[in-house]
Specification:
- By secondary structure, this protein is α/β, with parallel strands linked by helices.
- The chain has helices at residues 2-15, 18-29, 37-45, 56-74, 80-95, 100-118, 125-139, 147-178, 185-217, 224-231, 234-251, 253-276, 290-306, 309-323, 327-335, 337-363, 404-412, 430-442, 460-469, 532-541, 563-569, 589-599, 607-610, and strands spanning 219-221, 281-283, 371-375, 384-387, 393-396, 419-425, 444-450, 474-476, 482-486, 489-495, 514-519, 522-526, 549-551, 573-576, 604-606, 613-617, 622-626.
- Among the domains are: 162-222 and 287-361, no CATH class; 371-626, Ribonuclease Z/Hydroxyacylglutathione hydrolase-like (Metallo-beta-lactamase, Chain A), CATH 3.60.15.10.
- The chain has 23 helices and 17 strands.
- An eight-stranded mixed sheet has the order 8-7-6-5-4-3-16-17, covered by helices on one side. A seven-stranded mixed sheet has the order 9-10-11-12-13-14-15. Strands 1-2 form a two-stranded antiparallel ribbon.
- A hairpin with an 8-residue loop joins strand 3 (371-375) and strand 4 (384-387).
Length: 628
């Protein structure tokens, strides 16, 4: 089971762009470790973080899709579809790691399937909820004290309370719209009824969990319900697309990437939605818990009351009469409900797909004839993305996080582009090369270049494995070798020498691969982590180290970027690649002072404070943009 989970996770990584793959892993498999902190914060502050945790909503979508597909293939007059759906539900529980909310939903789903087989599906919700409470607390006596358990059951109890109202309101709205007799009235009525259902269900779950959220988190997102209403239509498409892409990727990576392009669209839309929703929250006073008990006493009473015959006959019957719904209209709306809902969801999906395709077509695939060099903000490390005037793509180093460079590349490359013309590793220190391991897994490369082999690095076995598994062509460069990327654009290795330098100071830093990128009259010097000893050697032995843009060595450490080296390079601009508030104190104040004296304060850039630094040049002039 763990092997299957890992295989599905790897297939998603190979089939989808990195951020979308991380979201799909969270939604499908409950693996949230690779989600960027910014994405998690967007979900939390928008009040939609419950969508990230696998819950009854996710399993319910899987259950309904599996029942519908199996009934369509095998027919409704056999118990086999129900048995297969039951097996799919519990397989998903195991693959997802069996979190509390999924186990609860699986028990309830099992009761629902049993009720479906017996012809009593509408009467199964409260008994199923009660059975799941009994079963889970019997197996784990401490379950009820956990916030995940409390939130899951409170939300489900709120939904159970609202379900009769939701059913009556949605049918009433659909029937009244249909009574107009206009064209598309059935579809419009079903869509409006479905929207009303989402509003009621979201409101019920929010009201039922409100005291727990207040008590445990001290704040409440004001737009949680509207954001959930907007996000919910995307979730089935995101789950179905992610599952299909994962299965296709297991069959063959190329098939996974073909399927992954349309599958990534609802995931991209979901990410965009939680990013643009205003992050309005209100602080809550959680002193004392008396109001919490009062709140739940009222809800419990309403829940018990809602299961009585008097409530169903009196309250809901009166609601139906107030809404003015005739019996014929109600029957017609219910009959067309499933078809109308599918058409409405399909329309949303087609509109979403068309919009995203338009945006993708307009955003990527165009070159402006300039050389672009991005010093990526990957934290305390180096990663430099290069795009040539002819559209070729190169990456030098990959930063300290396993998925950091791949995520950064997904912002620069279209989702369907999973290839790089060149990948370079200056040396196998973690802060330069760990991110390249994911890049080599996820991207095809024209060539991989590196300096001298470093068997002493603890990353060396992983590096060799990644190169071999991806069938990448690895070339070791040494001083004096030159690559012609395209006409007028060259990448020259200035260091290390073919015979490595040995001695106390000649560690992996001082044997870093140093590259000089030249285009017309503009040049960039990429120094890796070389320190004072290598700088002296380089200035003495290289034909020329003069460059317009200097990437300061070793993240601005005081052991690098010496005054003598600055005189030899004579740069006009300088970049320091370092993480904000890093534990090493990079960049050192003396290095910043030396750089400011050499190029001027306005021409010293740092990823720690300004984010990604983007240089572009036509070979004569140079433009600079900063992320912050």
């Amino acid at each position: 089971m763990f092997d299957l989970r890992r295989a599905l996770g790897r297939a998603l990584e190979q089939s989808l762009p990195p951020t979308e793959a991380a979201l799909a892993r969270a939604l499908l498999l409950g693996l949230r470790g690779q989600l960027p902190d910014s994405v998690v914060e967007n979900f939390r502050q928008s009040g939609t973080s419950h969508l990230l945790a696998i819950s009854g909503l996710h399993l319910g979508i899987l259950l309904l899709m599996s029942v519908g597909v199996l009934h369509w293939f095998l027919g409704r007059h056999t118990p086999i579809p129900i048995l297969l759906a039951l097996a799919a539900v519990w397989l998903y529980v195991l693959v997802s790691g069996a979190p509390v909310s999924v186990v609860r939903a699986a028990i309830m789903g099992s009761v629902y399937l049993a009720a479906l087989g017996l012809g009593r599906p509408r009467e199964s919700l409260l008994p199923a909820l009660a059975l799941s409470v009994v079963a889970m607390t019997a197996l784990d006596h401490g379950a009820a004290s956990r916030i995940s358990f409390q939130l899951s059951f409170a939300a489900m109890a709120g939904i159970a309370l609202a379900l009769p109202w939701q059913d009556a309101v949605s049918r009433s709205i659909a029937g009244r719209v249909e009574q107009t007799g206009r064209r598309w009235s059935l579809l419009a009525g079903t869509a409006l009824g479905w929207l009303a259902s989402v509003v009621l269900i979201s409101a019920a779950a929010t009201l039922a969990t409100f005291p727990l959220v207040a008590l445990n988190f001290g704040r409440l997102p004001l737009l949680g319900i509207p954001a959930t209403i907007l996000a919910t239509p995307l979730l089935p498409f995101a789950l179905a697309g992610g599952l299909i892409a994962a299965l296709a990727g297991i069959v063959h990576p190329l098939l996974g990437q073909l399927v992954g392009l349309p599958a990534s669209m609802p995931l991209t839309a979901l990410l965009a939605l939680v990013d643009v929703v205003p992050k309005w929250t209100v602080e809550l006073d959680t002193e004392g818990t008396g109001w919490l008990w009062g709140w739940y006493a009222v809800l419990l009473g309403a829940l018990v009351l809602s299961d009585t015959r008097w409530y169903r006959a009196g309250v809901l019957g009166r609601l139906t009469r107030v809404m003015g719904l005739s019996g014929a209209a109600a029957r017609s709306a219910v009959a067309g409900g499933s078809v109308g809902a599918c058409l409405a969801m399909g329309g949303v999906g087609l509109a979403l797909g068309a919009t995203l395709l338009y945006l993708l077509a307009g955003s990527w695939g165009q070159t402006d004839g300039r050389l672009h060099v991005f010093f990526l903000d990957v934290g305390q490390g180096d990663a430099i993305y290069i795009e040539t005037p002819g559209g070729k793509q190169a990456l030098v180093d990959g930063g300290p996080e396993f998925g950091g460079a791949a995520r950064a590349l997904s912002d620069r490359l279209p989702p369907w582009d999973r290839s790089l013309d060149l990948v370079a590793s200056t040396h196998l220190d973690v802060d330069h090369s760990r991110g390249l391991l994911r890049v080599l897994e996820s991207y095809k490369t024209g060539v991989v270049i590196a300096g001298l082999p470093d068997p002493e690095s603890h990353l060396y076995p992983q590096w060799q494995k990644a190169v071999a598994q991806g069938s990448h062509r690895l070339v070791h460069l040494s001083a004096g070798q030159e690559l012609a990327l395209e006409e007028g654009l060259t990448l020259t290795a200035l260091h290390p020498p073919a015979v490595p330098l040995r001695g106390p100071a000649w560690d992996s830093n001082n044997n870093s691969l140093v590259l000089r990128l030249s285009y017309g009259e503009i040049s960039f010097l990429l120094t890796g982590d070389i320190e004072e000893e290598a700088e002296r050697f380089l200035a003495r032995t290289a034909p020329s180290v003069q460059s317009d843009v200097l990437k300061a060595g070793h993240h601005g450490s005081n052991s690098s970027t010496t005054a003598a080296f600055l005189r030899a390079v004579n740069p006009r601009w300088a970049v320091i690649s370092a993480g904000a508030d890093n534990q090493y104190g990079h960049p050192h104040a003396d290095v910043v002072s030396r750089l400011e004296n050499a190029v001027g304060k306005a021409n010293v850039f740092s990823t720690a404070t300004q984010g990604t630094i983007h240089f572009s040049t036509d070979g004569r002039r140079l433009w600079v943009e900063t992320e912050r």
